[in-house]
């Protein structure tokens, strides 16, 4: 099924690249085609990654459902708090993405609007049957691409869940009264750390591709926006840029919180009444306090740490680039 999905998207990627070649003299069309091609390549890349990480993802999901099924009341309350924190933002992104794709793909069949997919074929597509097949393929593939675009929500969900488990474990640590309970907490913390590392490992390269693709697309969109293009095109590419920045944010936000929670687990020992315990217990608590290595989502030599600080830096650099590009173009035109 995954191989068929990748082949199906490839059948649209090739006409997209062909359209880029044929319309290379039109900057607006080229920008649209490049953005579309990157979305299609992203789907193929994510399909390959999910296929290679199938066993790990399956194990992660099984543990997720197991934890939810065995959750105690205070843990359920923590899960509900996390769900209430991000459900509006993430669900709005899903609704907006699917609504945009549905209008762009199905709308031209009933409304006088331009089709959102740019594709050129090396054969005659003016026959009714061929047009029907091509349009059906584009609609199916477009919704498939939309589902892959929303896959950041899946990664974000797993990262949020990991952070919530750290908070549940912190609550359990606060009730520790003897060495045996502390050992149980440490064992759970080590298992949770391995779980968090598995989640990070599954989505690390997806995040890398998203950041690279966003950087390239934002550059192309910025050039299109600051040049002499129609207002409708500028609004379209501004929307694409904003959606891509939101895409990165939906990874950076939970990753930053997971880092904070994994660090707070060790620091929460401060809140224990350690002075009421025995000297041996105090020594063990000190060992827990000494281990303060957080779990971070990072890519070696490229992204040192995906966090809100990194996102703000990325956003600042993107805006600075747009400002510099506009100034350069104004100088060349005067």
UniProtKB/TrEMBL annotation:
It holds the Pfam family 7tm_6. The chain crosses the membrane at residues 93-119, 139-161, 202-225, 231-252. Its main location: membrane. Keywords: Cell membrane, Membrane, Olfaction, Receptor, Sensory transduction, Signal, Transducer, Transmembrane, Transmembrane helix. Residues 1-19 form the signal peptide. It is found in: Cell membrane. Coiled coil: none annotated. GO terms for molecular function: odorant binding; olfactory receptor activity. GO terms for cellular component: plasma membrane. One of its GO terms (biological process) is signal transduction. It is a multi-pass membrane protein. This is Odorant receptor. It comes from Tetragonisca angustula. The lineage of its organism: Eukaryota, Metazoa, Ecdysozoa, Arthropoda, Hexapoda.
